[in-house]
Every structure is written in structure tokens, then in C-alpha cells.
Amino acid sequence: MEKHVFRLFVAGHSARSDRAIANLRAMCETYLTGRYHLDIVDVSADPAAAEAEKIVATPTLVKERPRPVRRIIGDLSDQQEALRDLDVPPEVPDS
What we know:
Low-confidence stretches: none
Number of domains: 1
CATH superfamily: Glutaredoxin
Distance between the termini: 16 Å
Number of helices: 3
Largest sheet: 4 strands, mixed
Helix content: 25-40%
Structural class: alpha+beta
CATH class: Alpha Beta
Oligomer: single chain
Mean pLDDT: 93
CATH architecture: 3-Layer(aba) Sandwich
Shape: globular
């Protein structure tokens, strides 16, 4: 099974950025344990990465794999909506 590959673009250590990171990590650990790779990009430290991806707002999550590429803007606080938008099945896999 193909790993999910995510890039989360945040701006520094704001409350909104920290919430997005925590929400994404919790979602991945619950629904994609061992089947994901996550890169966190701080656009204040790496503006070229944001420009290359045409990021206009933060936090923005980019799901690179599996295709199709998807983008979500926000702190991912609505987990069910985020799962649907990312095409991740909302069932917790068997351990």
C-alpha cells in the first residue's frame, strides 16, 4: 500500500500553526499509522518553498501522494472534513 505523503506549510510557531501540526499528527497516527510521511515547512524560514508551491495562506496542507494532489487551508480542526478532503478512509485500521 502506498504511503501518504504530506507537506504542511506553517508560519512560525503561532497558535494556529501549532494546532494544525497537532491535529495533523493526531489524524495520521490514528488513521495512517506507519503509512505516512510528513514534512513541516516554516514559510518564514523557507519562503522559497512556499513560493515554489504557490502557497498563499498558512497553514496549508498539501497531500502529494497518493495522487491526486490535494490542498487544505486551515488548522484541520474538523477531522472528518479533512479526512474526506484528503481521501483518507475514516475507519481506524486494525492493530
